[in-house]
Amino acid sequence: MLTLHPMKEKDLPQVAAIEASIFSQPWSEKGFLDALHQKAAFYLVAAEEEKILGYCGFYQSFDEADITNVAVRESERGRGMARAMLTELLKEGKNRGVAHFTLEVRVSNAPAIHLYEKLGFTSAGIRKNFYDCPKEDAMIMWRHEALD
Q1: Is 116 noted as a catalytic residue in this protein?
Q2: Which of 10, 41, 60, 111 lies 20 to 30 Å (CA to CA) from residue 33?
């Protein structure tokens, strides 16, 4: 059964392995460890038993949060896991007073862009040559919350 929980240190070897298998310039295990110790950061994982299937997280600055990582094991894609994780991440941000969420995504990553749009994100522009390996532009996306 799929569960979502805050990322813990014991999750980091699997998280770093997923990161390295997906991204051309991956965060290291130490990078994730440093993030876990930041009060302004929140990261969660999707797991089945002890197997980490995906993760996502943000850094908060006042009422804004930058979603820095969203990843799902290639073998587990298409199950709605990214949507479930992001829905939980947005809820956690709102509980922490976040009114504005932002992220960057490769302009060629149509499945991710489609998901973000379904979750209420809109394009706010392009960062030229934002990504390396291969060099590619990033679409900047924002979602604005109405806080109670």
Answers
A1: yes
A2: 111
